[in-house]
Amino acid sequence: MTRNEIKTRNLDTLAAYHEKLRKAPQLRQLFFELTLRCNEHCFHCGSSCAGDLPHGLAPEVYLGVLDEVAERYEKKPLVAVTGGEPLLYPDFFPLMEAVRDKGFRWGMTSNGTLIDKETARHLKEAGMRTISLSIDGTEETHDRYRGLPGAYRMGMEGIQNLIDLDCFNVMVTTVVNHQNINELDRLFEIFDNMDINVWRLTGLEPIGRAEKVPEMHLTADDNRRLMEFILEKRSKKLPVEYSCCHFLGLKYEAEVRDWYFLCNAGVYVAGILVNGDVTACLDIPHGPGTIQGNILKEKFTDIWENRFEIFRRPLSERNETCASCPQAKWCRGGSYHSWDYDHDRPKVCMKGILFE
Amino acid sequence: MKPFKRKIMLIGLAASTLFGSAGCTAFNNQAEEQPNRGRYEKPDADDNELEDVYGPPAFFDEDNNEPVAVYGPPEYFDEEDNELEDVYGPPEDFDEEDNQLEDVYGPPEYFDEGFNEIEGVYGPPADELEDIPEPEDNEPPVVYGPPEDFQ
Predict the structure, then answer these.
(1) What is the DSSP string of A70-117?
(2) CB-based contact (8 Å) between B59 and chain A?
(3) Closest in A36, A78, A197 to B2, CB measured
(4) For a designed S-S bond to B123, which of A32, A43, A56, A141 qualifies (C-beta 3.0 to 4.6 A apart)?
């Protein structure tokens, strides 16, 4: 079989699997938005975080959800905590140690600026398994994008402090835009000299504050350039990968990442926002159609089992053009976070950009 | 960077369990091609560099040493090992001709024409960065959860 024939078969298999999964969802990853407070102010923040925004719920509320989940389901999901900057959550370590003690694996996202050696050691003792840290450019670029002088230096020190303990899956994530795409080669040189596990590249997504800067988004040529950059690095067996977003077409699927596009929001993944609202993924726009309930008013497991209808049907069914697309069975309307729920159409479509 | 470790998809035998006796069309085709379904034999290599094409990877459980990841697909199937066929032959050539469609943001031209761009601003230039204010000594105690009217 040719490479594309194999890919086609795998994509068909996954499409059928996803159809089964939509009918019988399995909670495998649970995000907690611990806080919207952050010591940075990124121009592209998907959660529109800032220094004066609220923290999430009290620790016992989150732990109650985990007790509920552990009692109800055989397999414990991975708990992923995010923000804002999760380390700013006042009871971060007591909460995460309790998560560990309840037998849940957990990971987090972070800007790395608060991870000194002591904090890194504490994260290890609290049972952190994996972390995604953000570096969005060389020093001047990164500091400017993040609105914090010294952000790059502190972030890189944080990454190194984690690497030195050698017990975490350390992923560095770079959000690529129309400007910093010109720094990828330089960034590669930097990360190639660090002992990180993965360098993850994602395009600037039209969510949060990033939606207000269309001129910074990747053009068609930028997207192709990004794909070829990743391909070239992976051809040398280097751990660079594209994010899980978007169907990329047969040329790039399973080439720029180890897997195929398969947005699992609402069938594998759920998220709890700072106010207790339940959604399928923290990046999905918040609205009456996407918020499924609130854990302060009802049980999380009831919400997971009885709601989420919008996420358990392909988005492509909601748009005539999507539905008639030959790739609809594999794309299904794309990522749930980049769907325009007001107009029922995708905000991002790689057709005509990366595939015909 | 650490050595590249391609994540392996676990499918096949487990998938047949998940899909039940009816299975899926793609998987049934595999069965027809290979009676001993679930264990694929590598075809002979051609001149091109051999690459396996795997589907989504799995998180392994506590007994395995594979790391979990916040970003990256979760485990899909049970822990039964299975190999997929290797993929041989060159990929299809992609049409390199530059297309004239709109950028990826905003729908392609065959979508509704009413998409409006939102005006925006760049991140602040370096000389306009503001210091993050330090917390006051009399900072109030922690209050969990946003106010009721928080949007």
Answers:
(1) HHH-SSPPEEEEESS-GGGSTTHHHHHHHHHHTT--EEEEE-STT--H
(2) yes
(3) A197
(4) A43
pLDDT digit string (tens) for A85-138? 999 999 999 999 999 999 999 999 999 999 999 999 999 999 999 999 999 999
B 89-118: CB under 8 A from A: 89-92, 94-95, 98-99, 101-108, 110-112, 114-115, 117-118
State the virtual CA torsion across A120, A126, A127, A128 in degrees, nearest 10: -50
Q: Which of A174, A163, A88, A87 shows the shortest CA–CA distance to A138?
A: A174
Q: Does B9 touch chain A (CB under 8 A)?
A: yes
ipTM of the complex: 0.74
Q: Report the candidate in A17, A100, A290 with the shortest Cα–Cα distance to residue B9.
A: A17
Asked whether the beta carbons of A208 and B15 are under 8 A apart, the reply is no
In chain A, which among 128-147 make CB contacts under 8 A with chain B? Answer: 129-132, 140, 143-147
**Coil, helix or strand at residue B137:** coil
Q: Is B4 exposed, middle or buried (0-12, 13-18, 19+ CB in 10 A)?
A: middle
pLDDT in tens, A177-222: 999 999 999 999 999 999 999 999 999 998 888 888 888 999 999 9
Q: Tell if the pTM clears 0.80, that is, is over it.
A: no
> What is the token pair recorded at A101?
């003690």
Nearest to A169 among B67, B119, B133 (CB): B67
Nearest residue to B104 via CA among A85, A113, A214, A111: A214
